[in-house]
Structures are given as structure tokens and as C-alpha cells.
Prior knowledge:
Blueprint: H1 17-32, E1 56-61, H2 68-91, E2 96-102, E3 109-111, E4 116-119, H3 127-138, H4 146-149, H5 158-168, E5 175-177, E6 180-182, H6 194-209
Parallel strand pairs: 1-2, 2-4
Antiparallel strand pairs: 3-4, 5-6
Bound molecules: zinc ion (ZN).
Zinc ion is lined by residues 1-2, 4, 132, 136, 180.
Amino acid sequence: MSSRQAPESIGRTLTPRRNKLAVAALTAALLAAPGIAQAAPQDVPAPQQRAAAATITWSLQRASNPTQDQLTAYDLITKAMNAAVTRYNNVSDLGKSITVRYDPGVPTADGSSSGTIRFGNRNYMNERTALHEIAHTIGVGTSSRWSSLTTGGTWQGAQATALVRQFDGSSAKLSAGGGHFWPYGLNYDNEFSNTAADRHVRIVEAMVRDGL
Length: 212
Ligand SMILES: [Zn+2]
């Protein structure tokens, strides 16, 4: 299991999809009402003008004159991060600007809420680990609200709980501890599948809607 850095405070860049749709629906209703359209406030965007979904972006900090060891690591990290970020952007509307480093002093890999991910060990330079660490940058185990949202070792939020019950049945719950959650936490390589990875991303997004 990967370790994590101490939480740092940072403003979140995401815009929950639900809110954007609510604004669009409200605007559509206003525009549809007779005689109201011209009186609509200037700062309410028309539906077709609403902001695009937030996206996750990432960049790799490279040494200016990299060694062969660094070049090999950069290739593995790039494949892992591209796969994970593509999945996030296909499955969710979450947004984050992530900076990635190769640091051989890191035993496995870690992610902080400041948006930094460090990969150390070759065995962890894969999509599973990249997804897991992205979740840490978004707030899993690192948000100041994490402990209150995981009181008693169970996720307390309604949205993510409803989602895991949709996946696993009406008695399912999300357990949490040590800054991690399960099922679908992608805490170990043997948890990975395309289905589990998509569900992981959707649960993280629901956790954000729950106030992560
Ligand atoms: Zn972790």
C-alpha cells in the first residue's frame, strides 16, 4: 500500500457536474418563460455557454540531463499517468493540476493534496498506482474533511455510499482507514481491472460531491 504525504491546504479546481447541470436547467427555465428572457441577468450563462467539464492535467518534472535510470522511469511513469488521467477524464468531471516527480528515495509512491505525485519504485509505476495517487491529490486521505467523513471507519456521505450499493448490493458500504477506502480503493495491484478502475474514479467523484 502506498504512503502519503501530510495534507496541505489547497483550493479545489473542480466544478461538480451536478451544479453545472442545475445552473443550465435553471437558465433554460428562465429563458423559456414568456417575457423573461430579456430580463435574465447578464451573468447567467445560456446553456450552450456553460463551462466545459473540468479536466485533470499532469506534467512530469524531468532532470535537465537525465541518466538512463531516470529515462527508463520517465517512460514507465508517463505510460501510467497517461492511462490514469485518460480514464479520469473519460469517466469523471473532476479537475486537478498534477505535478509528477521521479524520486528513488520514495519507497513506493505517494500523492498529496497540493497536487504532487512522487513515484519511487519501478513496481509501482503502473496505472493502478497512478489512479490511487491521483485520488490522494483529490482528497482521499488528505482532505481536512476526510476524518469527519469517515467516522467509525465507514464513509458517511450519501452519494458515494449510494454508488457502492449500486455496484455491490443494498448492504454494501465503503470502509475507510489509514487514509484509504475499500472496496474499489485500488490499494493493491490485485484489485485492478477496467471495471474496478472505472468504479474507483466514479466513487472518488461521488466522494467529492459528498464534500471531500
Ligand atoms: Zn495510498
